[in-house]
Amino acid sequence: MNYWKLYNRYGLIIVILILGTFLAIINPRFLLPYTLINILAQASYAAIGGAGMTLAIAGGGFDLSVGSILTLSACVVATLVPTHGILLAILAALLVGILLGVGNGIIISKLDVTPFIATLATLNIIRGLVYIYTAGRAPILIRDARLNAITAGRIGPVPVPVIIMIVVFIVFYLVLEHTRYGRHLCGIGSNEEAAKVTGINVDRAKIIVFAITGLTAAMVGVMRAGQLMMADSDTGFGYELTAITVALVGGTSLSGGSGNMVGTFLAAIFVTMINYGLNLIGAGVFVRQLTLGALLIVAVFAKSYGGKILAVSK
Amino acid sequence: MKPFKKDKISDLIKKGEIRVLLALFILIIIIGVNNPRFFSVFNLQNVLRTAAPNAIAAFGMTYVTLSGSFADLSVGSMMALLMVISAFLLNATNPVIAIIGTIAAGALFGAFNGSLTVKGKLPSIVVTLGMLYVFRAIAYIVTDNSPIYITNESFIWLGNGIVLGIPVPVIIMAIMFVLFSMLMRFTSFGRRVKATGDNDKAAFFSGIKVDKIKIIAFVIVGISMAVAGILRTARMYSASPRVGVGHEFLVIAMVILGGTRLNGGKGTIIGSLLGALFFATLDNGLNLLGIRAYWQYIVMGLILIIAIANLKVDIKSLLPEKI
After folding, report:
1. pTM of structure
2. Sequence ranges of the domains in chain B
3. Å from B257 to nearest chain A CA?
4. What is the DSSP string of chain A?
């Protein structure tokens, strides 16, 4: 049996089980259904953006602007709820995410700017928009408790974020693995020139994938605003790291051409468990950031190193 | 003196640099017409003093981009941590040890980023994105999220002093510019960096130690961030772990605007200097014209996109056909 093959296929599940055992030993309450469901609910914030990022990476790009899009959508929903009602506010926020994503896609495809630079630039442009939109105001508080019920409440025993997450993953999994669009996207990710020659509309596919990534960021923005009942210019700070980490830890390769939705889902749970553990031992938010950054590097390193051993043993 | 003879002035300033020079010229005219105070000695000193640490950072980043490693996303956080280190060393010892120690730490951070990227065969964007958060978190943790103040007069002079009407940071920038340009143009190392960025396989087969070159490029950016960090600490009389959030964007924008090719192989230090001067002038101009600070994010983002946009629409097809 080859251990690296085993690691590549079931590694995350094994790591999650080990970490889970460890957490259960430190804190027996970890195994209560309440805690486990809560961890799933917490994981949904990282998972949904990670799912969008996985698609973008499969298509050979990636998106650094998701944190800013998240923030702007959260601020839009927070300001519009009192004046336009919950439904319109949510739709507007999601539309903002889609439009910003389309903007990213147009810059990347039509203006031929590398995704890295394009989204680094839009990260800052959208951050500027956030400041202008909120006019540097203090946190925007939301007083309508129904938003909280819709985005962060529970249906029976199941939290709404978990339901949203599961729907997103089923849809995204099917899109990536079982639709023509998914095949086209992977084709573009592995070899753009070849994809062009075979008649795929590369520009359109790219614009769509960045619109999807923008939409997922906006969804998380709305959910965050609903969960915290407020939004400010810091709401989405560092979210690009979370989304990219979750996608890459899940086994999706930055070189594009394929995506691992199941891995992204598991990675989101894994990251949330780590945060839960760090919380247990009383580590602050900065230690969590440090761990996340280190985890990203360790994960890509393990993947590259594991691949090398696999190649040698063949 | 042979190399000096070979290079004409027209070689020195290539197309990308001319573009940013023109842009800078137009910008200065627009600002000057709207607010003549721009040309006051005090204001010009201010513009150059603001530009200095950013330009020094851009010089270092130019090497990373030229060597084909895209960019170092961790520079902003790295600078914050280096500032903390410089202030800590200064308060514990003396300015000389603080400067040497900070530069050594910068080189070490760069070597770490570079080795991880090159030896681990990992994408530099992912490694440096991870380190962006690691450096920042360490800076927060060691300072307990509060600034460290400094009082040493001679250290503060580095950031605030003026010699013969020229701010000290600008003099240091000029020295760094000469050093980095010479390294790029007149040494075999400079040529190897470009060869590596242009085509690393070809460079490898022609006997260049590609890995070493790429790691050294990261060390160089680490050293530049240390110098930039020292100047900033001195200027602000303190080191705060919050400094430099989003700084990587500014530095990369300067380098790209200065005509350095994102895929490596082509670019100059003078281009990055002009890019830095352009953004410092823009920053100052927006302030003078009373435009709110956060518009700068939008303007800078748009300029970056315009600078490297490559319209797929064939312009010729839009023109009327030749008769």
Report:
1. 0.84
2. 2-310
3. 12
4. --HHHHHHHHHHHHHHHHHHHHHHHH-GGGGSHHHHHHHHHHHHHHHHHHHHHHHHHHTT---TTHHHHHHHHHHHHHHHHHHH-HHHHHHHHHHHHHHHHHHHHHHHHTS---HHHHHHHHHHHHHHHHHHHHTT-S-EE---HHHHHHHH-EETTEEHHHHHHHHHHHHHHHHHHHSHHHHHHHHHHH-HHHHHHTT--HHHHHHHHHHHHHHHHHHHHHHHHHHHTEE-TTTTTTHHHHHHHHHHHTT--TT-S---HHHHHHHHHHHHHHHHHHHHTT--HHHHHHHHHHHHHHHHHHHHHHHHHHHHH-
